[in-house]
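Recap from last week: sequence in, structure out.
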Amino acid sequence: MGVTERTARGDPVDHRAGPAPSGDQELVVLEIPASAAYVGIARTVTTAVAGSVEGLSDGRLEDLRLAVSEACTNAIEAQAAGGPEPRVVLRCSLRGRELEVRIEDSGGGFDPDQLATSLEPPATIDLVTERGWGIHLIRALVDDVEFASTGPGTAVRMVIRLD
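Predicted structure tokens:
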């Protein structure tokens, strides 16, 4: 099981490629096995890519790093009973003055409308095992977050506005 860096079409990433024709720029696509052992790679790649973007403070970079870690962990847990090789895909894009990170999985999915919208910690958080903080933390750490699930799989779109 290795790490494969691919474009949105599934082609190997060419780091010499320029911005997308729309003016938006897909910075990196990373596909990792759905295993906790690879979350650190997702954090490292996100930190390296986001750190090269002008207008992102060290504090906001750390916020994004933690949000990516939480989203990847949730994606991995959603696929615990998945197929033979469940994967998590991380996409970093620059869209004008926003850095967008998407985490996609092929787990069972869920109804995003059932998520509480409050920034207050949910009553279901387990303080002993530190479980249940993921979505709450993501919402607190990034400027915008969207959850999409259309059957199998979930996509989490996180945005940080650049200074």
